[in-house]
Design brief:
The complex is a heterotrimer. Chain A has a two-stranded antiparallel ribbon. Chain A has helices at 7-34, 38-62, 68-111, 117-134, 136-161, 178-183, 185-191, 212-238, 240-245, 249-255, 267-297, 306-320, 326-332, 334-360, and strands at 258-259, 263-264. By secondary structure, chain A is mostly helical. In chain A, β1 (258-259) and β2 (263-264) form a beta hairpin. In chain A, 76% of the residues lie in helices and 1% in strands. In chain A, α1 packs across α11, α3 (68-111) crosses α12 (306-320) and α8 crosses α10 (249-255). The model of chain A has no long low-confidence stretch (mean pLDDT 87). Chain B is an all-alpha fold. Chain B has one domain. In chain B, α1 runs antiparallel to α2. Chain C has three domains: 3-135, no CATH class; 165-279, no CATH class; 295-462, no CATH class. In chain C, the strands form four sheets. Chain C has a five-stranded antiparallel β-sheet, sandwiched between helices. In chain C, strands 8-9-11-12-10 form a five-stranded antiparallel β-sheet, sandwiched between helices. In chain C, α10 packs across α16, α12 crosses α15 (398-411) and α12 (349-369) packs across α16 (417-455). The longest helix of chain C is centred in the last third of the chain and has 39 residues, at 417-455. The chains are: A mainly alpha, B mainly alpha, C alpha+beta. Chains in contact: A-B, A-C. Chain C: One of its GO terms (cellular component) is plasma membrane. Chain C: It comes from Paraliobacillus ryukyuensis. Chain C: Pfam families: GerA (PF03323).
């Protein structure tokens, strides 16, 4: 029996994936480049992101709306497909590990002071193993269940923080750092829309493929708007300098909340949003990873890979995390390179070869 | 201390292995179970060595190392556009 | 011993003969000379005296009915317009004629015994290698329809099911007078031979669902079914889950409403609890009364119950997480008073919470089993143990008492007892998670819980629907209870055909 998810669930998963790492890291990274104009960077990123989404969908449709790994094998042949497929899987693996590391780091630094991040990593991974064993359908349904809570939390956060907005912080608009405003898009895109290439791995399981593009786009735009608003709020409330200095500016945003002297410091909301979105992100990467391996090893069930992969991911996350400062550095260098190779160059090649094969026929 | 954690981890992972294997044997064919057993044994040994601080291999650094020739110049270029943290 | 073996062993020697007295003896032996088996012999007044033997199980038949039948069959009717019985017996031919109208002719010993056990009266007549069975079922042990005790309502019908399956089905028939309300009967349990009936509305229910229910019931191979709980364990989708995936109720109106929505009711003889499948999580948070009260009030009450779920599941764990890990989230003034309260308490928050929660659970269990006359003693003791005395003794803080009370109150809010138990169970898991990882632990627990819930299915219907998968048309009867005249669709996932209820426009009284 093939597991199916509906368009709504797919859209929600995209939204959640966009928020995952982005909502917590982006304000800081964007502001680092464009200072007060970082919200402009975000707007442009969302626009470019929409094109990226459209492109991925056309690639999927061009490949015959089937399993992405089958499409890769179609485009590059059996051997080439194997190599490129594994390159893609290595990217997915990196994504899973990186998200796990960030979750461990965030929780051990901000929420549970004193608990080693490795323990957190272990617990989250165990939960993810349970989720992936249940399968994509269950993950999608749980995401759907939490979606409303996540949205409510985001709205609450916006509402509670809004009295503290100081609009002066965004001025002057687009006067300084004009070049940086555009250069900032390069690393930001990798953390947001380019990561959505992972969804090509599960797109085949969406039940209503005709409206796929619409769901993909709506999810992408919704996520983009939230990230944009978060960035905007960070600049307005915290100011440029504080936003840059904090690794997790949105968490500080939550700490700023003070309503009627009673509702204070409900950064728990932020922790909730971030933990849940990031968890589902890990689950999706994990499941795509297992499915890819299943395809390339020609196995009947992807469930065989779950536990061994858990060890591999835990192993990588255990040693891979040096310290909190390593993460932004990694994002700005290695991750940019790997992202653009896997999520832009390889799909481009694939698309070209698919078109060429079509023309030959 | 690290050794104790390592041993605990080993016991945990072997029990997971047995638990999963019992379930798998019903649904998987010979090739799949063999793959499962082999990969699990290798990974358990690696992870246990890792957790007990005897051996370490940084997979994430591997990505940086591979991407280094391009990543370094890119970071240099990007950092010129960054306005720096703090003040 | 199972039935077929019993048959084989007894087949050879158990043959009916033409001698009624011999047959009587045979049946008596096969039933182990049980004392409830009553036999009466009558000789017909003919030239050669023909013996007629009546057999019935005392207690399973209605005495009055048996007496009437014996007289009516045997004695000649000499009345003209009104039947008046003479004191002379009928002839053999007349008797046969009469019996062929009102009785079934049975030739197998096994079926004769079956009908005896089912409360029928069996006749043997000399010269006939067969028995006649007449339905005289009726029991002096049935209690009448009484007020229900488990799901009380302020407004709504107060009757409840009884232990008799026929009365129970009749209670539904009284409510749904539709020819398309169909029932099917089967017998489960090799020893108990329990009657099980499934009831559904034929043109509303999903065909596949009936097939599924039928096949699951047929698969049951067990010697005894004593309560619907036994059936429930056999037919539920997943055994290892704290959550019930089969609904039970002793309220006829709740079951009738379920049947009208396209669900299937399963009646089991001998218990007032009727099962209903498939069921969603949300059904355990709804009461039949929701539909009898005004819709806005019902919606509000449902929201209250949702809140109660969260409170009863998470209050102690949130308290533990806040006091142990996240003091910074508590407003300063409250934190100070909390710290002052906890000063004298020797235990960590988890132990403190566990002591109180376990005490409360003990009290609750004690309260259920106690006779009503002693019940008040428990409440006095309970007030002492869970109250100021515990605080004064320095075992727990005052805040903890409040936390336990909130948990207790909210766990009594649920209309369904078995759902409340599952939350009680999970609460302890959450407390331990909160004590080890604070809010992070609670979040992880919630994730696991929701993933488990979304993996559950009740007869193929996702347990968390209509929330996940989301279904906008079913929202009108999930958390919200829209006015009845607006609610024109039946739940979508439960029945695919005949989704629309008859559209009933709101009557406009304004002029």
């Amino acid at each position: 029996m093939k597991e199916k998810i509906n368009l709504r669930q797919f859209m929600i998963l995209i939204f959640i994936n966009l928020l995952g790492t982005a909502v917590i890291f982006l304000p800081s990274i964007a502001t680092n480049f464009a200072k007060a104009d970082s919200w402009i960077t975000m707007v442009i990123t969302v626009v470019i992101g929409c094109f990226v989404i459209c492109w991925y969908t056309t690639l999927f449709i061009e490949g015959g709306k089937q399993n992405f790994f089958v499409i890769i094998e179609q485009g590059f042949g059996r051997k080439g497909g194997f190599i490129f497929g594994f390159l893609f899987l290595s990217y997915v693996f990196l994504n899973a590990v990186a998200n796990l590391i960030t979750i461990g780091d965030f929780v051990s630094v901000q929420v549970l002071m004193g608990t080693p991040s490795k323990v957190i990593t272990f617990i989250v991974l165990c939960t993810a193993v349970v989720g992936v064993r249940y399968g994509l359908e269950v993950i999608a349904r749980s995401a759907e269940f939490f979606f409303s809570f996540i949205v409510i939390s985001i709205i609450l956060l916006f509402l509670f923080v809004s009295p503290k907005i100081d609009i002066q912080n965004v001025f002057p608009v687009f006067q300084m750092n004009q070049a940086s405003t555009f250069v900032g898009i390069i690393p930001i895109l990798t953390l947001t829309y380019l990561e959505l290439i992972i969804f090509l791995g599960i797109m085949e399981q969406v039940s209503n493929k005709e409206k796929l593009m619409r769901g993909y786009l709506i999810g992408g735009i919704m996520g983009g708007i939230v990230i944009f608003v978060v960035t905007f709020l960070c600049i307005c409330v915290l100011g440029v300098d504080a936003t840059i200095r904090q690794t997790y500016p949105i968490y500080v945003l939550g700490q700023k909340i003070s309503l009627a002297d009673f509702i204070q410091r409900i950064e728990g909301i932020v922790a909730f949003i971030w933990f849940f979105t990031n968890f589902f992100k890990i689950c999706i990467s994990y499941i795509v990873l297992a499915k890819g391996l299943q395809h390339f090893f020609r196995f009947k069930s992807y469930k065989i890979f779950i536990v061994p992969l858990a060890f591999l991911i835990f192993y990588a996350a255990y040693e891979g995390f040096k310290n909190s400062y390593y993460i932004p550095e990694f994002i700005n260098s290695t991750y940019v390179v790997i992202s653009y190779i896997i999520a832009v160059i390889i799909p481009l090649l694939l698309h070209l070869s698919l078109i060429i094969k079509k023309l030959k026929r | 201390m690290a050794l104790v954690v390592g041993i605990l981890f080993m016991i945990f992972s072997i029990s997971v292995l047995i638990f999963e294997y019992k379930k798998l044997i019903k649904i998987a064919d010979k090739r799949e179970t063999r793959f499962y057993l082999l990969s699990m044994v290798v990974l358990i040994i690696f992870a246990t060595l890792q957790v007990s601080n005897i051996f370490s291999l940084n997979i994430i650094s591997g990505y940086s190392w591979v991407a280094k020739p391009i990543a370094d110049p890119i970071e240099r270029i990007l950092s010129t556009f960054q306005t720096g943290g703090g003040d | 011993m199972n039935k077929s073996k019993w048959n084989e062993k007894n087949k050879k020697k158990n043959k009916l003969t033409s001698r009624a007295l011999y047959n009587e003896q045979l049946i008596k032996e096969l039933l182990g000379n049980s004392t409830e088996l009553v036999s009466k012999q009558v000789n017909l007044e003919e030239e050669e005296s023909v013996t007629v033997v009546f057999l019935y199980m005392n207690g399973l038949v209605s005495q009055k009915l048996v007496q009437e039948i014996i007289l009516e069959i045997l004695l000649i009717d000499i009345g003209e317009a009104v039947p008046i019985l003479s004191n002379k017996t009928k002839s053999k031919e007349d008797l046969y004629h009469e019996l062929s109208i009102i009785a079934n002719e049975l030739t197998e010993v096994e079926t004769i015994i079956d009908s005896l056990i089912n409360g029928k009266t069996v006749l043997f007549i000399d010269g006939k290698i067969a028995a006649f069975s007449i339905d005289t079922k009726g029991s002096n042990t049935d209690r009448g329809v009484e007020q229900n005790t488990t799901q009380q309502v302020v407004r709504g019908p107060k009757d409840s099911f009884t232990e008799s399956i026929l009365i129970n089905v009749a209670l539904i028939r009284k409510r749904i007078k539709d020819p398309s309300l169909w029932t099917e009967q089967m017998v489960i349990g090799t020893k108990t031979q329990t009657q099980v009936m499934i009831a559904y509305i034929h043109d509303v229910v999903n065909e596949d669902l009936i097939k599924e229910v039928r096949s699951r019931l047929k698969k049951i191979k067990v010697d005894a079914i004593l309560e619907s709980g036994n059936i429930e364990e056999f037919i539920q989708d997943q055994t290892y889950t704290p959550f019930p995936t089969v609904y039970n109720s002793e309220r006829p109106d709740a079951i009738a409403a379920g049947i009208l929505e396209g669900r299937i009711a399963i009646f089991i003889d001998g218990t007032p609890f009727v099962l209903l499948v498939p069921v969603l999580l949300i059904n355990f948070l709804q009461t039949p009364e929701d539909y009898y009260q005004r819709s806005d009030i019902a919606t509000l009450l449902r929201c209250l119950r949702m809140l109660a779920v969260v409170l009863s599941l998470l209050t102690p764990s949130i308290y533990i997480a806040l006091t142990v890990f996240h003091q910074e989230m508590i407003p300063t003034r409250l934190l100070i008073s909390l710290a002052a309260q906890r000063e004298g308490v020797p235990f960590p928050a988890l132990v403190e919470a566990l002591i109180m929660e376990v005490t409360f659970e003990l009290l609750r269990e004690a309260g259920i089993r106690l006779p009503a006359t002693v019940g008040s003693a428990i409440s006095i003791v309970g007030a002492l143990v869970l109250g100021q005395a515990a605080v004064d003794a320095g075992i727990v803080s005052a805040m903890m008492v409040i936390v336990v009370s909130i948990t207790a109150i909210s766990s009594f809010v649920f209309p369904s007892y078995n759902f409340a138990i599952s939350l009680r169970m999970l609460r302890f898991g959450f407390m331990i998670l909160a004590a080890t990882f604070g809010f992070f632990g609670i979040f992880t627990g919630l994730l696991l819980l929701v993933m488990h819930l979304s993996s559950l299915r009740s007869f193929g219907v996702p347990y968390l629907s209509p929330f996940a998968p989301y279904n906008s048309s079913d929202q009108e009867d999930a958390i919200f209870r829209v006015p009845i005249w607006l609610r024109d669709n039946r739940p979508k996932l439960i029945n695919q055909k005949n989704i629309r209820r008859e559209r009933s426009w709101k009557v406009n009284h304004k002029k």
